[in-house]
Amino acid sequence: MSELPANEGMSLIVQTVTRWLKAFILLFGVYIVIYGHLTPGGGFAGGVIVACSFILLTLAYGQRRGLKAVSRGVAGEMDSVGALIFLAVALAGMIAGGAFFANFIETGEAARFTLPSAGLIPLSNIGIGLKVGMSLFLVFTVLSAMHVAVSGSRRRMISRGEDDR
Amino acid sequence: MDILIVLMVLMIVGAIIAVETTNLLSSIVCVGAVGFLLSIAFLFLGAPDIAITQLVVEILCLIILIRATISRDLTAVSGDREFFGLTVTLATVLAVAAAGILCMADFPAFGQSVMDRITDPPAASSRYLAAGLEKTGAANIVTSVLLDFRAYDTLGEATVLFCSILGALAVLRRKARRRESEETEGDE
Amino acid sequence: MIYALCLILIVIGLYAVVTKKNVVKIVIGLAIAEYGINLLLILIGYRKDGWAPIVSPDMDPAAFAASSVDPIPQALVLTSIVISLGVLALMVALCIRLYERYGTFDVTEMRRLRG
Hints:
Distance between the termini of chain B: 63 Å
Number of domains of chain B: 2
Helix content of chain B: over 70%
Number of domains of chain A: 1
Shape of chain B: globular
Number of strands of chain B: 0
Radius of gyration of chain A: 21 Å
Structural class of chain B: mainly alpha
Order of helices and strands of chain A: HHHHH
Number of helices of chain B: 8
Largest sheet of chain A: none
Helix content of chain A: 55-70%
Order of helices and strands of chain B: HHHHHHHH
Largest sheet of chain B: none
Oligomer: heterotrimer
Distance between the termini of chain A: 28 Å
Radius of gyration of chain B: 23 Å
Strand content of chain A: under 5%
Strand content of chain B: under 5%
Shape of chain A: elongated
């Protein structure tokens, strides 16, 4: 399959800033996912921030670099792994607690307001954050691959003398 | 609240510009502006969780929309659809607006939340607020509602997200596109 | 009054969906209608001078339960916002395929061309 040339990325300023910032954005996304039961945030917002860090890498350096960081196969598999983690947590609740999604990890009152406090909730947050982040990055890479390809076919239409609509 | 009314008027102005302008890039940017104002409005309404989520989701929506439409048909399409269909659909929209205004008579006054109108037995929200911390151990009551009291809804939501992303990937498959581009090159 | 403004936002989005010819404008109208609906859900759960539904260590539980805003609409709007993102990605993918097939974003042209 002939690979159309990937986008070259953006200017030097954007690339330098991205090189410094992408790790912090990823870390911030992971922080919002993990502390979801203590501060505002949770799995969904944190997952979108994680996806945004990889999307920033793709926009600044071009598609090849972005796919080298997280390839399409890896993103698809981690998306499914995130969904399976969430489902496994629910089924574990059924096995160990008697009802679907039962919160069976009992942490005492002394552990409130600290990180290992809410039982199954941080594990669910991690599963959801992984799933949302990877699936949104996957759909972005596929959309931008189409973008490159379609502008190629449009150029073909124009060179054939057809009306550019 | 005055600040809320100001924000909503700005949102309506931004929405009208987004819908009516002929330049596609401007209308996408205006939708982004409406989303940011909405995130600020959520902060004033006591929903920091929603504000964070709306902000980052808005950024991602802008990226997807701009990335997908940037090098295509930016300006040409304008005007509305044909006349008879137009009047019927406008009548439908006005009917929806009138029905909405009628339903708003039943709403609680702004500032008195819905859970205060249900007192006997106490509404679900009151019970979750009163017992959320002891029963789940999570300080963020919205997360405990999402992932412990109402976890089925979150399972359904993860499924919907999974299926919509799967649908988007299936629509953009490369194999079918390659067959099609061979066709269009073949029959010149 | 605020509910009326919210309803105007929803109706503007609906108007764009039913009257515009450009398919990207239809997608934008749907996004605006979704913003209006999420805002309406949060508005009916708001309590005057209410606190955010997050407990701090030094808070009295009874006072918290009596003056916090409603957490259930917030949980539902959270899932709604993320679902709208997934649906927007699907709609934009469909727009791209339509542009590839017909060469235009115009909905009336797509009805007339065949195959």
